[in-house]
Amino acid sequence: MGVMTSPASDSLKEIHLRLDTRIRSVDEPRWLSSRYATPEARTTLIILYAFYYELARVRLVVTDQTMGNIRFQWWRDALEELAQDKVRQHDVVLALAEEIRQKRLITTDLMLIIDEHEAAYLAYNRSLEPEDRLVQIAARICDAAADFDDRLMALAREWAARRRGENDSSLSAHLSVASRIRPAVAHLRLRHIWARQAEPSALQIRASILLAMLIGRV
Q: Which residue range(s) make up the domain with 119?
């Protein structure tokens, strides 16, 4: 279940700012890519990433599978309650409520992310985490009409493996992507840096993402 609560008096803007700060702290590569999105898309991306992080961190804070199941079910229940106009006092849930109401995020997509994170957690297999689905949803946020290349799904899984330090897999070639979806996928270019060094500098990370944005190759 969640760790971020929000007083009822907090505005949605204040919540968005807190989530943005949080994602910058825990997931800087995706945060950096999101800076190049339009303001509305950037906000939706950050809320999506904040939701994803809440699920990903279950493996960090819960070792008992029963308790883990309870946490994943908490998120399912929270999403189901939104359809009944019941909003739990949690920053991510409050932010999701508006995104779902405006149809910028779809409940069924979010439910699938929960299911796949839970499956990865129960199997003790992080390769099952839905990094590919996350990229697909993020790309649709940036451009609902864009053609989505299925090869990006494979690159997302490869990116996640490289980020975890799993360097035994082959490295795919760069892939050209449409300009509108680059804020959702520019960070995928980092897998080439991680293949060369485990801890690149902040400047290298920013330069890699900027290059991906400029030339469209991830």
A: 12-215
